[in-house]
Each structure stands twice: as structure tokens, then as C-alpha cells.
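hey m, so remember when u said the C-alpha cells were messed up on ur end? i reran from scratch. heres the input so u can diff it against urs
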Amino acid sequence: MSRLSSFISKVCYNWEMITVFTDGSSRGNPGPGGWAAIVLRDDAVTELGGREEPTTNNRMELTAVISALESIDEGKEMAIYTDSAYVVSGITRWVKGWEKNNWQTSKKEDVLNKDLWQKMIKLSSYKVIQWKLIKGHSGTKANERCDVIATSFADNTPIVLYSGSRSRYGIDISISNDISSKKSKSKKKPYSYVSMVDGILEVHKRWEECKARVNGISGAKYKKSISPENEEEIIREFAE
């Protein structure tokens, strides 16, 4: 049986919808970082987490997804929820151009985090994945739990990871998503902060992190985003 036939067989006869939440955090760019993932199966929940140093927020966001994918067999269908527009836009759109251009940007520079992107592409093969972009810190309890896990690892603070039945899991797994809010930009709360220092782009969830990175750096760029879509626009603007 070919690998493709085996994949189709697994999807058809061993169907299970898996829900995944991921998040990443770093204390400085670079600096100590942590990542987190929650993998929800039909009858079980597994929390994952880890720490790296030094690292960046974007690498931790990618590592969280990669670690979740590594824990899931081929032939599975899943929905991956992340508040990182960098992850969702990258895997669903940008990687196609990067592969075509031999992993170089439009400016003929090497794509950042190439090693992680290539690993994610490989792990995504023969899995049916719905990539879901949600707004962070907006009431989605599983996303907020991932943030707690990731920041705890970044701070090197001990935290107990849950592994057990869904019925005993004390976290609400429903999705609260206000990305489509009709409020004007001027009244919207910040979604993220994007910075560019020496040609290296980073996305920050907190102003303090962005400020620490750009403060006193000649030529540094930074801008507040108010939604995942706006964050992507700024990333593209800085990358051009």
C-alpha cells in the first residue's frame, strides 16, 4: 500500500477530530522563551510545554505547533487554534513562495526560522489541518492557559502539566473570538506590536517587550496592530 493510500485509509477508518491550542512566549528577543500546546482528543487532554534559551517569540510560536504535531499520528484531522498571525499566514500562504524562491525573501535574504518552517511542513503532510487564527487574551480559556504555560517555562517557573480525561479537565475549551469586532481602529485595544531591528522582524504581545527591543536602537521600526489582519499588513509593510 502506498503512503497516500495508507493516509486515506487512516482518515476514512480511524477518524478522530483533534483540537489543538498553541502559544509561545519570550522574555526579550532573543531571550529565555517558553512554548505550550493543549491537545484535545475525543476522551483525553494532554498539555505540552518546554523552554529554550536564547530564543524569540516567533520561534516559540512555531515550536509549540511543531511539538503538538509531533504528538499526533498521520491520517488525523485537526483544528489548530493560535493567536499568531505569523504562524497561520506563514504555513497557509508564505511558505509556498519561500519554497519556490529557494527559501529567500523578495529581498534575496534568507527566510528567518527556515529550519522550523521546513519541519512544520513535513509534519503537516498527511494530516488534515484547519488553521484557526484567534485573538489572544480575549476570553478563550484554553488560549489563556497556553499563555500561562508558555510564560511559566520562559520564566523557568515550575508548572504542572495536565494529562488525563476531558471530563476532569478544568479548562473551558470553547472559543471566544472577537476578531470581527466593528469598533473603529482608534478605539480598539492593541492586538500586538511589530518591531524591526537590523532587518529582523519580531511580533510582541506586550508593549513592554517591544519597547525594550527598540529603545535606543537607531533605525528601529515598530508599530501597534489592532487585529490579526492588521498585524499581517504591518509585517508585510516592514518586510518590503
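this time it looks ok to me. Helices lie at 3-13, 57-70, 85-100, 114-124, 141-154, 207-214, 228-239. if urs says something different then somethings off w ur setup not the seq
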